[in-house]
Design a protein that fits this description.
Layout (H helix, E strand, L loop, with lengths): L1 H20 L3 H11 L4 H12 L5 H17 L3 H12 L5 H17 L3 H14 L11 H12 L3 H13 L5 H17 L6 H13 L3 H17 L3 H18 L2 H17 L3 H12 L9 H16 L3 H59 L7 H34 L9 H18 L4 E7 L2 H8 L1 H16 L7 E4 L4 E6 L4 H16 L14 E7 H4 L3 H17 L5 E3 L2 H11 L1
Parallel strand pairs: 4-5
Antiparallel strand pairs: 1-3, 1-4, 2-3
Helix pairs in contact: 2-3, 3-4, 4-5, 4-6, 5-6, 6-7, 6-8, 7-8, 8-9, 8-10, 9-10, 10-11, 10-12, 11-12, 12-13, 12-14, 13-14, 14-15, 14-16, 15-16, 16-17, 17-18, 20-21
GO molecular function, one term: diguanylate cyclase activity
Catalytic activity: 2 GTP = 3',3'-c-di-GMP + 2 diphosphate
Organism: Rheinheimera riviphila
Length: about 575
């Protein structure tokens, strides 16, 4: 009898175990979707389990969406794009199409392809009314906020995120809105943001199981301490959360942790540790050479090596920084231009629609008036003339706006001189013309010394005041035929047609002295501004704009390396010396 009972227990055990071990496919998808923004490792395990099942078309669409999200987190953006596009042509779930379009817009923003990012964002916005889940609808505004922030349009980011917060939105959308509102406020006016404001955003994201966004928030906490010169606190915060960021964070987040941590260590005069931290940062895979963390990391590495007395290594990293910074700033400039052009195109299309509506109104009136007696002909003619005048007015207004928008696209919105896109376009044409006649043209690049400290200590609004003051003072000495442009944050260039190198160097010296004499009391802070200059000309560097930029940059670096607030005229031997130093 005992043997029979034992055998029966074993049989029941084997029958009962399988029934509770297999989770349903819907449960796997639900858990994977939640892990997407909280636990990438768990997401990877769940996706492997899902792949073993036979999936319907809509489930296959869901699988591609989740697999693309996991691939994006590890930084393989091209593969993520392929998976998202596969999700768009598989299945017919409108909610998944909407979510996929938003993630495509997001990854295109990260890849700095703003034309594609806007295209996917507009497609997603057209699906909002068809989305069945009301919690998903605010996501399109969240992606617009991310796009604004990527373009460094901080005020637009603050305004849009505050609008979203005022609607009472909850969950992931509120977490994102809180973070980007705090981030942009800190970038625009770092002296006004409170630590408690940043911490509230972090706590909200944590309470809704959104650890990645909470970790991004800790970077803001560290930057807050850096701004207030609490360097040890900044280092402590980043060291405490760095392991978590490495375990679950995307490469962009990990990059911010390493670079911000190295800044704190540098300010604590621990240059050796700061250098090692940056070395670990440079080993990160899939991080873009022209990303903001990489640009800041290369610049800091050059400064550390210069402080340690490693001149050749400092020069190598400074050259890498110049290349990455130019790509980064040029991309931002082109993106902002594309944004303004897209925005203006929408305005023009709306005006065209208004004109068409008025034309349709005119046709309707003509049909109605055709039935009226001859006695009403005078009234009809008067009305027709009035409408034609209105149409003429709107046509003139559209033409005038087009000219205004073109000017906006060609000029820097802050300081009112040529932006990088228009500067390079015009100078390239002028150089081509000068080459045919062998005319000597000169080229000046100058960079404001220690300008980043002005932004860090006094805020971006003070930095903007300084940039405007510099341009205002320099304009007094630049000829009408010269092309004066802002080619980066604090970097400017002047192209001087029919001008020798010696005369250009003299002008650079005049500008250097004018900048040094600027009275900055109007900014509200006791700031001292200086600039370093690099000068070259076509009979030394040729007629290729890229070579002129490169040689002037070498001269500019020498000015900075020799103590800043100097003018250096490029000599061909400098190129050989710098190449030897790198080798």
């Amino acid at each position: 009898m005992k043997k029979l009972l034992t055998l029966l227990s074993v049989v029941l055990l084997f029958v009962a175990v399988p029934s509770s071990a297999e989770p349903s496919l819907d449960s796997l998808f639900d858990r994977a979707d939640k892990a997407r923004t909280s636990n990438p490792s768990e997401l990877q395990i769940l996706l492997k389990q899902i792949s073993k099942h036979k999936l319907t078309e809509n489930q296959q669409q869901y699988y591609y969406y989740l697999l693309g999200s996991q691939t994006q987190v590890i930084g393989d953006h091209d593969e993520a794009i392929r998976l998202y596009q596969q999700a768009l042509i598989t299945g017919n779930s409108v909610d998944l199409q909407y979510r996929t379009l938003l993630l495509l817009s997001n990854v295109m923003t990260v890849k700095q392809n703003m034309t594609a990012a806007f295209s996917y964002l507009f497609q997603a916005s057209e699906l909002v009314d068809k989305v069945s889940n009301p919690e998903l609808k605010p996501s399109v505004k969240v992606q617009a906020i991310i796009t604004y922030m990527t373009l460094k349009l901080y005020q637009e980011t603050i305004d849009t995120s505050q609008e979203l917060l005022d609607t009472g939105v909850q969950g992931l959308s509120r977490c994102n809105a809180l973070f980007y509102n705090n981030y942009s406020t800190q970038e625009l006016t770092p002296e006004k943001i409170e630590l408690s404001q940043i911490q509230n955003g972090i706590n909200y994201c944590k309470s809704h199981n959104l650890p990645i966004m909470a970790l991004y928030g800790q970077v803001l906490v560290a930057k807050y301490h850096l701004f207030h010169k609490e360097f040890e606190k900044a280092e402590s915060v980043l060291n405490f959360h760095k392991r978590a960021a490495e375990d679950i964070g995307p490469v962009h987040l990990v990059g911010h942790y390493y670079v911000t941590l190295s800044q704190a260590q540098y300010f604590l005069n621990d240059t050796v540790t700061a250098s090692k931290t940056l070395d670990n940062f440079f080993k990160i895979k899939n991080i873009s050479f022209s990303s903001e963390p990489m640009v800041n990391g290369l610049k800091l590495k050059a400064e550390i090596e210069e402080k340690l007395g490693n001149t050749s290594t400092a020069l190598k990293f400074y050259k890498q920084y110049i290349e990455a910074d130019k790509i980064f700033k040029n991309t931002i400039s082109l993106q902002q231009t594309a944004y303004n052009l897209a925005k203006n195109e929408i305005i023009n299309k709306n005006q065209q629609i208004a004109l068409l509506e008025k034309s349709n109104t005119l046709l309707t009136l003509e049909n109605e008036l055709a039935t009226v007696e001859n006695d009403n002909k005078k009234l009809f003619i008067t009305l027709l003339l009035t409408i034609l005048m209105v149409l003429g007015y709107f046509a003139f207004r559209a033409f005038r706006n087009t000219r205004i928008y073109r000017k906006i696209a060609e000029n820097d919105s802050l300081v009112g001189i040529s932006n990088r896109y228009y500067f390079t376009k015009v100078v390239a044409l002028l150089l081509s013309s000068s080459k045919t006649t062998s005319q000597t043209d000169a080229f000046i690049i100058f960079d404001l010394d220690w300008f980043k400290q002005v932004n860090d200590l006094y805020g971006h609004l003070t930095g903007d005041w300084v940039l405007k003051a510099v341009v205002s003072h320099c304009r007094q000495f630049v000829r009408n035929v010269d092309i004066f442009g802002r080619i980066g944050g604090e970097e400017f260039a002047i192209f001087l047609p029919a001008c020798t190198a010696e005369k250009a160097a003299l002008l650079a010296e005049i500008l250097r002295d004018a900048i040094e004499e600027i009275d900055c009391n109007g900014s509200g802070y006791p700031i001292k501004i200086t600039a370093s200059f690099g000068v070259t000309c076509s009979d030394r560097s040729g007629y290729e704009l890229r070579q002129l930029f490169r040689d002037a940059d070498i001269a500019l670096y020498l000015s900075k390396n020799q103590g800043r607030n100097k003018v250096t005229l490029f000599e061909p031997t400098q190129q050989k010396e710098s190449a030897t130093a790198v080798l």
